[in-house]
Specification:
- With 420 residues, the chain is α/β, with parallel strands linked by helices.
- It has two domains: 270 residues, UDP-N-acetylmuramoyl-L-alanine:D-glutamate ligase, CATH 3.40.1190; 131 residues, Mur ligase, C-terminal domain (Protein-Tyrosine Phosphatase, Chain A, Alpha-Beta Complex).
- 38% of the residues lie in helices and 19% in strands.
- The strands form three sheets. It has an eight-stranded mixed beta sheet, sandwiched between helices. The protein has a six-stranded mixed beta sheet with strand order 12-13-17-14-15-16, sandwiched between helices.
- Helix 4 packs across helix 5, helix 7 packs parallel to helix 8 and helix 11 packs parallel to helix 12.
- The two termini are 27 Å apart.
- The mean pLDDT is 92.
Length: 420
């Protein structure tokens, strides 16, 4: 970098390098610092209506479903998501489209000048940057994915018109706790008094409903107030006077049902033909994404037990079609690797284990003991996802499907490999 602090004419890469080193911690819980900066640059007086989306899994797919259904009705929509797969620009979309680098540079420059001596983490800079962009673009609705938990996440400085919890499972246990009750309580921190709070989890911890009742949130709960029933190639959604059957989408139907319920409650649900068209077109990068037809290769960001259970359902469908499964896995060291592997292990015919790069990366050699004795004997180990793909793709026959999974980093490497 040509200078210590970038400016409005600096590149986005220069800014991102600066944000990575300007704060000593990747995560620092608490809202006082970020709210102070937001107030100093007047980010919280936007006219946009904000919907917050928390959950262990399913935030991205729920947000993409909401985005599609709102855009189909002519609303302007800003969507904030993290982490990104390939480019930072993926984190902020306006009307379904990533923005030029200069939008992000302008936002970071505004924050840097306005924060004074107040330190911000990389994620906090990104969150405030997204809010600055949405205010600048004057969008009708903002879909704000919560980063970690809810109660003390940087996104929780806003006042939403409604809040959503997609699913609740164990992840980030060092921050959120080691029980679903603790995790659920933290996520429920995005609820607001007298505002709709939609919970899509199928086994809602009592801490979620107790907190919602305590603050008088308007709780709308799955299996009590709305329902979804999966079928062979479709699913049924029921909420109040609505009872609709749709073809099974490419994303989890549970998350679609949650999104539909939210829009119905806000009186923003489009007509049936629009919903069907939007669901048919839905695709989310890295969520059981097909990379190749020949050989057949899919990739999925599954990195915790719940997301692995959803991946397992997709693999069962492939096995029922007569395919063998070759799994290429690479994970981060701080994830529940044993549980993830255990969820899918019985469906896997052959394993390739790869190492990731970075301070949180797990080595392939540490994944090997998590396989069964029989699987260990035939498994291959590689120094990277790239090397594993180079070696193994030529070994796949027409009756074998490769699934590359275990982390956002794993999926990013696989996608970049294909792009090259």
């Amino acid at each position: 970098m040509s200078q210590d602090i970038p400016c409005q004419s600096s590149s986005l890469d220069d800014w991102l390098c600066y944000l990575e080193r300007v704060h000593p911690a990747n995560i620092e819980m608490g809202l006082e610092r970020i709210k102070q900066v937001a107030d100093s640059v007047h980010l919280l007086n936007s006219s946009s209506k904000i919907i917050m989306i928390a959950g262990t899994n399913g935030k991205g797919t729920t947000a993409r479903c909401l985005e599609s259904l709102l855009l189909a009705q002519g609303y302007s929509v800003g969507t904030y998501a993290s982490p990104h797969l390939i480019r930072y620009n993926e984190r902020v979309r306006v009307n379904g489209t990533e923005l030029d680098d200069q939008y992000h540079v302008d936002a970071f420059d505004l924050l840097e000048k306005g924060r004074g001596e107040t330190p911000l983490t990389y994620f906090e800079f990104g969150t405030l940057g997204a809010l600055a962009i949405f205010k600048r673009c004057e969008v009708d609705y903002v879909l704000l994915e919560v980063g970690l938990g809810g109660r003390f996440d940087a996104t929780n400085i806003v006042e939403p018109i409604a809040s959503v919890i997609t699913t609740i499972d164990l992840d980030h246990k060092e921050y959120l706790g080691d029980t679903r009750e603790l995790v659920g309580y933290d996520k429920a921190g995005i609820f607001r008094a007298d505002k709709p709070a939609i919970v899509g989890d199928l086994n809602i911890p009592h801490t979620v409903t107790e907190y919602g009742d305590e603050i008088s949130a308007e709780l709308i709960l799955s299996k009590r107030d709305f329902f979804f029933e999966p079928k062979q190639s479709s699913f049924v959604w029921r909420y109040k006077s609505y009872e609709c059957e749709f073809e099974k989408p490419s994303i989890p139907a549970q998350n679609v049902a949650t999104a539909l319920t939210l829009l119905a409650r806000l009186e923003l649900l489009p007509e049936l033909s629009v919903i069907e068209r939007c669901l048919g077109d839905l695709k989310v990068e890295g969520r059981f994404q097909k990379l190749s037809d020949s050989p057949k290769v899919f990739t999925d960001v599954a990195h915790n037990p719940e997301s692995a259970r959803y991946l397992k359902q997709k693999l069962v469908e492939l096995k029922q079609q007569g395919f063998k499964i070759h799994a290429l896995i690479a994970m981060l060291a701080d994830k529940d690797k044993a549980s993830v592997i255990n969820e899918v292990s019985e469906l896997i015919d052959f394993w390739s284990l790869a190492s990731l790069d970075g301070p949180r990366a797990e080595q392939a050699s540490n994944l090997l003991p998590l396989l069964s004795q029989e699987q260990q004997q035939s498994a291959n180990m590689f120094d990277s996802v790239h090397m594993a793909l180079d070696s193994q793709l030529s070994q796949l026959d027409g009756q074998t499907v490769m699934i590359v999974f275990g982390s956002f980093f794993t999926v990013a490497e696989a996608i970049q490999y294909w792009q090259k």
